Amino acid sequence: MELKGRNAVVTGAAGGIGAAIAAALYERGARVLLADLDEAVADTAGTLSQPHWTGDVSSADGVTDLVDTAERELGQVDLYFANAGIGGATGLGGEGDWDRILDVNLRAHIRAAERLVPQWTVRGEGYFVATASAAGLLTQIGQAGYSVTKHAALAFAEWLSVTYGDEGLRVSVLAPMGVNTKILWGDHPDAVTGTALTGQRAVAEAGNVLEPADVATTVMAAIEAETFLILPHPEVLDMYRMKGSDYDRWIRGMRRYQAKLQGS
Fold it and tell me: What is the pTM of this model?
């Protein structure tokens, strides 16, 4: 897809990957609405002279208001980046933890697609980009909610592509490992302990921790090539193939890796 002149919405755009994607889109001539629950999105958008929306995409009303705002500010939406996400609770979590992470990491994608896919299939084109994680292909040590919702986000994107790909819908899924953002390090990195620290180390030590701008460059190339699976860390594909070739061996290996992280 040619990005110049296109209208895009990026959620989770106050900082991190979302802000970097918004900047990369703008550099390529797209008009961008930056969306986030964090009011800092106004400052991020201001640096690009682009509109912003402050609200919560974890609710159906929030997604409706976001898309309405985008259509009012930009016109028809050509690309939607479902990038907003949270790490969630450590371990199994509780009922409220599951409700929250499912709404943010999965249902926000579904609700946006429910609004946009019908109009895209009528027009014969549209692009949905979901930020998942390497955890969606592999797993996330220490965080059940994060692992499950990232698997689910990937599965939903697959379904969208299979179901509507012949009607002009393009779909990509971003699945990085470690990226230098708050979702990896948290607001207070020095205070992370226990299960949370184990999960953090599992990601940070598995491969290079990339900068958001580098991830965004990879995303732009993938969109222009209309590639489904976007892997800023190419080694994730080798890990995924190893997992698929012998699931039991892979699970045993992950148990050993977890034990090593917990013991060191």
Answer: 0.91
